[in-house]
Design goal:
- The N and C termini lie far apart (61 Å).
- Helix content is 43%, strand content 17%.
- It contains 8 helices and 9 strands.
- A 5-stranded parallel sheet has the order 5-4-3-6-7, sandwiched between helices. A two-stranded antiparallel sheet has the order 1-2. Strands 8-9 form a two-stranded antiparallel ribbon.
- It has 2 domains: 134 residues, NAD(P)-binding Rossmann-like Domain (Rossmann fold), CATH 3.40.50.720; 64 residues, no CATH class.
């Protein structure tokens, strides 16, 4: 597949991102993936790969690193047996049965070869035109996960927006969400009227409640939400 980029035609492998017919930039479909027990292959063992591996492990992926050399931190993960390491350069066929692949080598030729070979989700670090998905900049507060993307146009702007969001959504939102999990479960059991239940669930997740979580903290707002549940049960 080929598409026009600026004044030149860039060759794209068939599994790459489709383009909006009216744009020369990919229109990405945002999603959150469950990687639990999924085979994930990381090509490269340097500092960039070192940064990419921990979020994969935290997501429950089975990570295999293919690289002749690895950093001390990756070596530590290997000794802990939380990753598998194949100590050699990338070979065709290494991606078999992989669900997701990340290439983070310092060789453009190797990265491009990985992009062509991958039969699955593939991310070539800092080379959006060789990817069929890109990794957003994220703010994680427990179960709250906010992703920011500029569609690969400006990762620096994504990072700046992420830093701003980190100041807006603090640790109190993680604690409040953890409280809401139990409160929501109780509401589903105790509020039998569907309309009232919907109104209650919207109320405890409203913009007003968000403002109050920031102002009063998660502990106080947990009490408020529990009080609203008691009222909703009896009304």
């Amino acid at each position: 597949m080929e598409y026009a980029s600026s004044s030149k035609t860039v060759k794209r492998r068939q599994s790459g991102c489709l383009l909006n017919p009216s744009s020369d930039w990919p229109v990405y479909y945002p999603l959150f993936m469950n990687l639990t027990n999924k085979k994930t292959t990381v090509i490269g063992g340097g500092r960039v790969a070192e940064r990419k591996i921990p979020p994969l492990l935290k997501s429950g992926a089975r990570v295999t690193v293919i690289s002749p050399d690895i950093t001390k931190k990756i070596e530590h993960m290997k000794r802990q047996r939380i990753i598998q390491h194949i100590a050699r350069p990338y070979r065709k066929g290494d991606l078999r049965e992989s669900f997701l692949v990340i290439a983070a080598t310092d060789s453009p030729d190797v990265n491009e070869q990985v992009s062509r070979d991958a039969p699955c989700l593939v991310n070539i670090v800092d080379t959006p035109h060789l990817c069929n998905f890109i990794v957003p900049s994220t703010v994680i507060r427990g179960p709250l996960n906010i992703a920011v993307s500029t569609s690969g146009i400006s990762p620096a702007l994504s990072r700046s927006i992420r830093k701003e969001l980190q100041t807006i959504y603090g640790a109190e939102f993680s604690k409040y969400l953890q409280s809401l999990k139990k409160i929501r479960q109780d509401a589903m059991k105790m509020i039998h009227d569907r309309k009232k239940r919907t109104e209650f669930l919207k109320c405890i997740a409203s913009e007003e409640m968000i403002r109050k979580v920031r102002r009063k903290g998660s502990k106080e707002m947990k009490k408020t939400a529990e009080g609203l549940l008691e009222k909703a049960k009896t009304s």
